[in-house]
Amino acid sequence: MIGYQFRPGAVTIKLFGGIEAEDQHVVPHDPNNAVQGAEIGFRVLVETWYDISPRWFLSADASYGTAFQEYCSLARVGFRVRPKLSLGLEGGALGNEGYNAGRSGGFVRINLRRLEVALSGGFTGIISKATRAAISRSVTTELFREEKSPPECTAGPAPAVLRIISIVLDNASEGSKGQCCVLVVHPV
Length: 188
Prior knowledge:
Strand order of the largest sheet: 10-1-2-3-4-5-6-7-8-9-11-12
Number of domains: 1
Number of strands: 12
Order of helices and strands: EEEEEEEEEEEE
Helix content: under 10%
């Protein structure tokens, strides 16, 4: 994805767009699931960050992709316990042409030089178009690695970042477990 970052005051805004390719295979085959096979589309992404005070921050991210009509949003309010350690609450919505879901919980973030690790956990409520609603526990880990230091300017291109996201869902209503790992490289 290509993008642009700008900073009007205490707010950081990042805008991205690019081509996406997705390949989904459900095993065993689910004839009621419309989200199967390969699709290519366009994805847009917005990330924002606002330092409310030296200790409090707010972030809000949203993305939409035309392959399988995917969307995702996440807002976090956090408190810096130490300069490199933050705790907070999060909530958001996600889905595609096969399901809609809401997510809420808490997170902890640790900054280690050019590496940031975030761990969040909570509950996800899923409404599938093929099955009934379910509430699951979820745990998410995120790893961000900056390839170079951010520029000291109010506008301009952003540095490249490696983002690894791992999500574990436990569907308490059906006793099944699913795991998903996503690797995304994009400028932030």
